[in-house]
Each structure stands twice: as C-alpha cells, then as structure tokens.
Recover the amino acids of this structure.
C-alpha cells in the first residue's frame, strides 16, 4: 500500500512464485502453502503485507515452501477461479484467498479439490469441510481507535474514510463512530467512502484517499482513520503534510517502511492479526489437523487491537487509560460494539 507501488500487473493465470527463492515451488518433499492477494497486492503496507508476513513466518519456522499470486487490475471471479485452481494443482495446501472478494471463487474451487484446505480472510459466506473462514472483530479494534481519536482531537472533529462501501468496511465505521461518541458525545465524525461496488478502486488508489482526507482536513478534522487498504496511504500522507494525526489499519503502519516519511503523524493503528491467522492455518495443515469453519480473532485474544509504536502515543497517559478501560469493558461485555452504523 505504500506510496511504494503495489504490483497489480501479474497475469491472473500465474500460479504464483516462491517467496523464498523465486522458483516454481516444485519440491515435492516440502510442505507447500500459497496465498492469493487482494486488490493492492503485496507492498500495500497493510492488509496484504500482513498476510505475507504470516506466510514468511511459516517458511522460516515450519520449513514450508511458500507461493504467492498477485491480482490483476479490474479482474473478475473467473480470474480468481483460475488463480486458485493453478495454486491447488501445484500441490499447495493450504491455499488462502486474502479478502472477501475471493468468496465466489473459493466456493467453486474448494469443491473441486476436497483434499486441499482453503482459507478465506474476512468472509463467512463460504462454507465447506475443507474451508477455513479467518475472520476478525474489526469493530472492536475500531472502537478503540474512536476512543483514541476523540481523546487526541483538539478540534472536536475527526474523520473516517472507507475504501469501498461494503459490509466489512461498515464494521470499521460503526465501531469507530461509536468509540468517538461514547468518549465525546459532542464530537463530529466526518465519514466518506471512496468508491461503491463493483468499483473497488477505493482499496487500490492512494490519490483517492489523499483527496478525501484533504477534504476532511479542510472541514476541521484533525484525526483521520482510513480503512482503505492501499488507498489509505494517501490519507496518511495528507494528514502528515497538514500536521494532523492519522490512524492506520490492519498492520502497524507506524512501522511500515513505505510510510516512513509520515510515521510521526501516525498516532496508532487498528491491527488485525492477519499474519497469525495465515500462519496458524498453515501450521494446522502441516500438523495434520487443518482448521475448518469459522476461526475468529477478537480483542480478548489480541486478534484485533491498537498499536502503541509511536512514542508520542505512549506519552498520552489519559488517552491510554481511556483505551485500556474501553478494551476491558468490551472484553467483559460491558460495552457491546455495533457491527453496522
């Protein structure tokens, strides 16, 4: 996602490359696992990069031979079917689709390869004996971001930018707005979505995020939270250049190399443990006990959370206390976070 360009151009028919040696992954003695990236591809400093980190960890810790496959710009379900089919035929197990957009393709391909475990991140609509649904309580992490935004804001106006207006991203919005309002009922939350389906450019084009953030900054927002994949890097850039706060998403964006120029303005990030979800699924298959069905990651298990890498964040004792209290209240059931606005 960064201002570093994401590779969108690999052929949809490619069966992936070994992330360790660039080869084709034909060593039949080694366990093989594959991930097929979502819009934005590897290099997005966010969602896809978190998935890659899980694959890399499996390579390093488990001796798994990893393969990756990039999306192509403007592709359809048929392209995803072809990609997943190629990865499964190459002997990869599991094959993991990074993002809900893979649901139709996994439904079709998983039925054709019953001995292969398929993972899908951020979707529960596809079910099967060989399908693992890796899902997260994004609304819980986003609630904490709302608490942090309300505490950090001096203007009383904060922003939310969603990449594409789909139910998943509405979860981010719902939690964030609730967290802001519970912390400061008088606060104003500006909300904007970059694109509407079937146009998914809102996850892929940083210029869209930058323009939206600039619009919110012009209206007085001094903290902006973007759940927009690669496009979110544009929002981070705009906030940084205006001397205002941004809140990252999915990965700890303060530590992402592609965003280093803007890191001082990244107050915190809503993290999803996509990396461990990928690693855990790969390990389960290698151990002969593959995960299937819904595998949920929430606050109670640190499956979602709020990062504290920015030293400036660590100095905000009132903010941290409010976030920690909210976290415990959610875990204890005292706060129920909405999943829709």
């Amino acid at each position: 996602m960064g201002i570093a360009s994401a590779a969108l151009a690999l052929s949809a028919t490619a069966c992936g490359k070994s992330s360790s040696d660039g080869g084709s992954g034909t060593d039949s003695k080694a366990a093989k696992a594959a991930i097929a990236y979502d819009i934005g591809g590897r290099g997005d400093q966010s969602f896809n990069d978190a998935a890659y980190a899980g694959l890399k960890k499996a390579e390093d810790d488990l001796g798994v031979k990893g393969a990756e496959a990039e999306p192509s710009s403007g592709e359809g379900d048929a392209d995803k079917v072809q990609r997943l089919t190629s990865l499964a035929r190459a002997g990869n197990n599991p094959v993991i689709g990074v993002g809900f957009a893979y649901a139709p393709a996994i439904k079709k391909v998983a039925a054709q390869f019953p001995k292969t475990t398929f993972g899908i991140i951020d979707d529960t609509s596809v079910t099967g004996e060989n399908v693992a649904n890796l899902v997260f309580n994004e609304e819980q992490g986003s609630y904490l971001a709302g608490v942090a935004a309300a505490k950090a804001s001096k203007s009383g106006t904060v922003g939310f930018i969603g990449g594409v207006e789909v139910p998943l991203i509405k979860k981010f919005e719902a939690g964030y707005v609730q967290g802001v309002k519970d912390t400061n009922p008088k606060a104003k939350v500006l909300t904007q979505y970059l694109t509407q389906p079937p146009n998914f450019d809102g996850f892929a084009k940083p210029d869209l995020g930058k323009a939206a953030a600039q619009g919110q900054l012009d209206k007085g927002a001094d903290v902006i939270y973007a759940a927009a994949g690669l496009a979110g890097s544009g929002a981070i850039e705009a906030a940084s250049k205006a001397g205002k706060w941004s809140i990252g998403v999915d990965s700890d964006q303060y530590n992402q190399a592609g965003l280093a120029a803007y890191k001082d303005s990244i107050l915190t990030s809503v993290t999803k443990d996509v990396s461990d979800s990928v690693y855990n699924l790969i390990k389960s298959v290698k151990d002969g006990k593959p995960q299937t069905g819904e595998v949920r990651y929430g606050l109670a298990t640190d499956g979602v959370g709020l990062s504290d890498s920015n030293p400036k964040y660590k100095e905000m004792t009132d903010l941290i206390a409010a976030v920690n209290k909210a976290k415990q209240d959610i875990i204890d059931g005292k706060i129920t976070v909405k999943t829709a606005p």
Summary: The longest strand covers residues 157-164. The chain has a mean pLDDT of 91.
